[in-house]
Amino acid sequence: MLNTITNSPYLILLSALILFITSGYETIHTLNDFTLSTHHGILVFSIIQIIKVIPEIMHGLQEIEDADEIMEKRLSN
C-alpha cells in the first residue's frame, strides 16, 4: 500500500511541481548574486522529475482513452 502511494506518478508530479515553484522563486530572487546554491540543484532535480513522470501520465491517459472507446463500442452494440 505504502509502495503504491510513494510510486504514484501524480504524487511525484505534485512534489516536483512544488519543488519547481519554490526553487524557481528563490532562483529568480537571487539572480544578481551569481553564485551556485542549493536551490539551483533543486530546480534542476525538479525539472528532471517532471520530465520523467510525463510519459507515465501520458500512458495512463492513453489507457483511459482506450477504455472509453471500448466502453462506447460495447454500449453502442
TrEMBL record:
Organism: Amphritea atlantica
Superkingdom field: Bacteria
Protein name according to UniProt: Uncharacterized protein
Lineage: Bacteria, Pseudomonadati, Pseudomonadota, Gammaproteobacteria, Oceanospirillales
